[in-house]
Design brief:
The complex is a heterodimer of chains A (about 325) and B (about 250).
Chain A (H helix, E strand, L loop, with lengths): L1 E14 L2 E15 L4 E5 L6 H8 L7 E6 L2 E2 L4 H7 E4 L11 H11 L4 H14 L15 H13 L5 E5 L7 H18 L2 E6 L2 H7 L2 E6 L2 E6 L1 H7 L3 E7 L5 H11 L7 E3 L2 E6 L2 H14 L4 E7 L3 H9 L7
Parallel strand pairs in A: 3-8, 3-9, 6-7, 7-8
Antiparallel strand pairs in A: 1-2, 1-4, 4-5, 9-10, 11-13, 11-14, 12-13
Helix pairs in contact in A: 3-4, 5-6, 9-10
Chain B lengths: L1 H18 L2 H28 L5 H19 L2 H10 L1 H6 L5 H29 L6 H29 L2 H18 L11 H8 L2 H14 L4 H27 L4
Helix pairs in contact in B: 1-6, 2-3, 2-6, 3-6, 3-7, 3-10, 4-7, 6-7, 6-11, 7-8, 7-10, 7-11, 10-11
The chains are: A alpha/beta (about 325), B mainly alpha (about 250).
Amino acid sequence: MITARGLTQTFTSKAGREKTEVTAVDGIDLDVAEGEVVAFLGPNGAGKTTTLRILTTLLKPTAGTATVAGYDVATQAQDVRRSIGYVSQSGSTGSVTRAGEEVVDHGMLYGMSAADARTRGQHLFEQLDLEGLWTRQPRAMSGGQRRRLDIVMGLIHEPSLVFLDEPTTGLDPQARANLWTHIADLRARRGATVFLTTHYLDEADALSDRIVIIDHGRIAASDTADNLKAAVAGDLVELEVAGVEQVSRAAEKLAALVAELDGVAVDGHRVSGRVRQAGRAVPGLLRDLDRTGVELSSIEVRRPTLDDVFLDLTGRSLRES
Amino acid sequence: MTFLRESSIVFRRQLRMNLRNPAWVLIGLMQPVLYLFLFGPLLKPIAAQFDYPNAYTFFVPGLLVQLGIFGAFFAGFSLIGEWRDGVIEAERVTPASRTALLMGRLWRDVLQLFVQALILVGLGYLMGMEAPFWGAVLGIALTLLLGGACAASSNALALTTKSEDTMAPIINMVMMPVLLLSGILLPMTLGPQWLQKVANVMPTKHVVDAVRNSFLGDFTVSALGWGIAWTFILLAVSLWWGTATFRRENA
């Protein structure tokens, strides 16, 4: 569905008299198969939206090529536009219009007849829990309703490939969870290929078959969430020691289990390190600590998260950046 | 055909939005009326001084062009709001022609101008303006083309600046010399030689002259040539600029 080779986008930004070249996307290769749901994960400013805008023909790449739905984005933009749906970050409907009219007009710009666009639009309103909002002004809708309306706009011409740019940014947790079910439905119900960008780890984890991690305009990794997590060395074991004088002894015991060179981190009363198959190793560790008189006030074992994956790949936490 | 269809979809949407806003309708209709009733009487005694037989025959064409230029200059402001709502981007991912996206909006601006022009010229006739019918028709036609050009530039400027705060001072900066040097309210011939020379550089001055001559029934090339030529040049350049901004990435 999507094949990209060496996509590069540089912008010149002017600050005063100085012109600086900013490379937003730096030689990206990307392959998305038909029917796949792929999450494009990265911090703000990593180049997610820029890549998306290239793939949706809104931006011409400085270098590289991309084929989307079988058409070249540079030379066959019209055909690409006809085949894809795009739900942008900034919304898609005027605030003083009426929802249904916007949907019908949008469908007509895709060449649909007014009657077809209306039938299809009303059907989509039902599917996305927007019944009764056909004549509502978008500004009078809740954030979640507006996002679902944006999705209706993006689906009106029945595209086989749907791009979603940060679909749940700014939504409250309930609206997010609700929107997730609708996004999951895109493939389940209509077999669409879905490409979504997000900077939420849980979103990428919950929705996608495969996660492509982007950082500083480059692809850092591309695999299933499970494989990415498995590549991180072990589970995180975090011990909180009751007395400061016992910290070094606890660190020593933990270090025996930690295979990696980066070893054990000590922070005040806390001692932590990554341990392979922690479930098996921890009981022994506890007995060991008990024997040497180390008193613990808490112990925590965490499975690797996508954040650990991101930290591992880029040296930064996604939450910090 | 597709182009016309796409333009009319955009046009219909714009018109629907504007007609739902009563302030827009009311202000649009009141503008020509207020000018004519509140400013016209002031001009009456002055008209005699520059041997114009009829103050309204002088004043109505000038007002017409002013409506055309100024109303259209502000057309772009609504586009910034639409851009912020994401509407422009949503339209740009459809296969619709980029020129149609601009053209549909221009039709709305020109339609608004056309209604205002009819009111203004109609009232002008009622108040004693003397102008041949075809002269008025030609004058209105030129004004609509000029208004279309200004609206296209305004839309292009809106998509370039993407901020009301940046756009407003630029429009003000452009409008001041246009207002002062086009002889819209008073004929430039009242002024000294040097001022007339400066005014000759202003394309809109020639358009105002042509519209005025047309209302006087003077259809000679020397009376209309420059004005018509400038109207089409301005229109061509603005349409090119407007389409380019809709086509450009990042708009």
